[in-house]
Amino acid sequence: MTDSEAPILNIVGERVALGPLHRERMLALDLKQANDFTVTRWGGQNPHPITEEMAAARYERITHTPNELWFFIYERASLRPIGITYFSDMNRVHRTAEFNIRIGATDCWGKGYGTETTQLMVTYAFDVLGFHVIWLRVIGTNERAIRAYRRAGFQDAGRLREAHRIGQQAYDLLYMECLASEYQRPVPRST
After folding, report:
1. What span, in angstroms and rounded, lies between the C-alpha atoms of 76 and 54?
2. What is the model's pTM?
3. Three-state DSSP class for 54?
C-alpha cells in the first residue's frame, strides 16, 4: 500500500483503528457488506439487495447529517476496512448519543474487534466529545454483540419485547447504556 492509498487513522487501538470515511472505500464496503444477508440479519435489518446508486445516496446522506459521526473500522494489521461505527442521535445539550457498529467482514467476527472498537468509541465520546451517556439497541438474540458491549462497559437498560421484525419473525430489542461516571477505561496491554 502506497502512502497515497494508506488510510487516515484517527484513533488507533491494539487490533483495530478508526478513520474517516472515504467515498470509494465506503461504496465498495457498503455494497459488499449490505448485500451479505448474514451480516444484515445479525444487524437487525431485513435482507434486500443494495445497488450502487443506493449506496451512493446513503453515503451522501451520511456526509450531510450533522448529528452523526462516522468512522471506518480498519483491521490494524492489514489496514483493510472491515466495517463502520458511528454515533447517531447526538444531543450536545443532554450529552447523549446512540452507538452503532457493523463489522461486516465475517472472518473478523469473534476476534475481539467489536469489543475494542466499542471501547475506543466510548472513550472518545467521554474524553474528547464530552458526552455523559452512550446508549445502544441490539437484537436480543445477538449474543456475540451483547457480550462485546458488556465487556466494553455497557449495562442493560431495558427490553422492548417483540419490538423488531425481520421477515415474519419478531425479536426483542435490548437497550444498553454506558455512563461516563461509571465507565472503566480499558488498561492498555503491555507487550
Report:
1. 29
2. 0.85
3. helix
